[in-house]
Amino acid sequence: DGLGYNTAILVAPDGTLAQRTRKTHIPVTEGYYEDDWFRPGPAGDDAFPLVTVDEARFGLPTCWDQWF
């Protein structure tokens, strides 16, 4: 379908990819056109895993996902 994912990434201090999450909730209301460009990422208990980098814990909900 040619659609991509709206993806948040976390890069560790050593330059490696520490975590990646894909936006799960794509808004489909007036004024939002994200569904023209992006598909939803995976849903479920592991959609927003926590990762620890230098003793700090991170979660990466993207934009609209924070409300769910």
UniProtKB/TrEMBL annotation:
One of its GO terms (molecular function) is hydrolase activity, acting on carbon-nitrogen (but not peptide) bonds, in linear amides. The keyword Hydrolase applies. Residues 1-68 form the CN hydrolase domain. InterPro entries: Aliph_Amidase/BUP, C-N_Hydrolase, C-N_Hydrolase_sf. The keyword Transcription regulation does not apply. It comes from the Bacteria. Pfam families: CN_hydrolase. Keywords: Hydrolase. PANTHER family: BETA-UREIDOPROPIONASE, NITRILASE C965.09-RELATED. This is Hydrolase. The lineage of its organism: Bacteria, Bacillati, Actinomycetota, Actinomycetes, Kitasatosporales.
